[in-house]
Specification:
Largest sheet: 7 strands, antiparallel
Structural class: alpha+beta
Radius of gyration: 15 Å
Helix content: 10-25%
Strand order of the largest sheet: 3-4-5-9-8-7-6
Order of helices and strands: EEEEEHEEEEHE
Distance between the termini: 19 Å
Shape: globular
Number of helices: 2
Length: 154
C-alpha cells in the first residue's frame, strides 16, 4: 500500500489515505477519485469529498440517501447503519443500481466532525465486489486528517 495525500481539508489539514499499489489518483469536480486501472468495464474506485457544514449525522445521512436514490434510477438499498470512523461518527449506506447489463454496488459513508462532513464512496461492479470490497473498505477505513505543519495524523 502507498500513502497519498488527498483533499485539502483546510489550511491546516489534508485528508490522507492508504491506497493499494498501482491505483491512480485523479481530481474531479465531485471529489478526489482513487481507482484501480482496468482496460474494460467499470473501474473499482473510492471517491473522497468534504464540505464545511454543521449538520447532524442524521441530517447528513438522510441527504446522502436521498441523493443516491435520485441520482441512480432503480437503486436498491441493501443496508443502512451507524458506525464509528477514526474521524468521528459515521453513517453507512450500501446500495446497488443497474448500469446497462451490469449492477454497480456502492458503499457510501458520511462522517461528521462538527464543522465538516467527509463523504467516502466506494463502488465496483457486482461481479468484482467480493474481490475488491476488502481493498475499498481498507482505503475508506484509512482516511485521516493530517496536520500540514506537523505531519501528524488524527
Amino acid at each position: 500500500m502507498a500513502d497519498a495525500a488527498l483533499v485539502p481539508a483546510s489550511e491546516w489539514h489534508v485528508i490522507a489515505a492508504d491506497l493499494p499499489d498501482g491505483w491512480v489518483v485523479t481530481e474531479a469536480t465531485f471529489g478526489t477519485v482513487f481507482e484501480r486501472p482496468t482496460t474494460n468495464g467499470f473501474r473499482p474506485n473510492v471517491v473522497v469529498a468534504q464540505e464545511s457544514t454543521t449538520v447532524s449525522l442524521i441530517e447528513a445521512s438522510s441527504g446522502m440517501m436521498a441523493a443516491a436514490i435520485a441520482a441512480h434510477p432503480g437503486t436498491r438499498v441493501l443496508e443502512v447503519r451507524r458506525q464509528e470512523h477514526a474521524l468521528g461518527p459515521s453513517a453507512r449506506l450500501l446500495f446497488g443500481y443497474p448500469l446497462g447489463e451490469d449492477w454497480i454496488i456502492v458503499d457510501q459513508r458520511v462522517i461528521t466532525t462538527g464543522d465538516t462532513a467527509v463523504h467516502l464512496t466506494a463502488s465496483a461492479s457486482v461481479l468484482e465486489w467480493t474481490a475488491v470490497e476488502p481493498l475499498l473498505s481498507g482505503v475508506m477505513d484509512s482516511v485521516r486528517l493530517v496536520d500540514v505543519q506537523e505531519g501528524t495524523s488524527r
